[in-house]
Amino acid sequence: MKQKGQTLYFITSLLLLIGIFIILFLYFNDKHTKQLTSTKNSFIIADNTLMTNMIDANKNLGYKINNLTLKDTLNGKIKLKDIVKDKNILIYRIAYSNCSSCIVSGLNSLLKNTYKIPFNKIIIIGSFYNTKELTKFINKNNINFKIYNLKQSIDLPAEEFDIPYFMVLSKDLTVMSCFFPEKANPKYTDYFFSGIEHFFINK
Fold this sequence. Notes:
Layout: H1 2-58, E1 69-71, E2 77-79, H2 80-84, E3 89-95, H3 100-112, E4 122-127, H4 131-141, E5 146-149, E6 165-169, E7 175-179, H5 186-196
Parallel strand pairs: 3-4, 4-5
Antiparallel strand pairs: 1-2, 3-6, 6-7
Helix pairs in contact: 3-5
């Protein structure tokens, strides 16, 4: 009788343990499946965003920009052509209306990749209310790049989105490359810089 009770106890305990194991297995399997699905969806969203950005960026290629009049930090006027001269330049285009964290993310990517693009071939063109606001922005973000203020917009499709963007400008002011940086995926910006290095070799 005692042995039967022990056997029943053993079987009951075993079944209970098996039940707990099955429940835990199903729980963690479901959790893992959800994580995989979430990761997959994140990749899909990132890929779709990148594809859309590339399509929008490519719409700017071949555009020739007017010889804009910019203002430096001392409020002096200078023509874009006099800045570009006989070399290709990388422009980081920003505006006071842009998302501030997006601007900073682009700046960080730029700083991280200056070994790919010569420092003297990088400029920032911002659109701020006045020179005082421009100077405040420079001091706040410890900017060492040459930066200029432009009150009006540039005649490019990229200006429609009100977000920061990079573009490579040739010596005749033609857009050779364009890219909208994604603050959530800065590695894409790194890839962009790697892809435009050849524009600045002995040019």
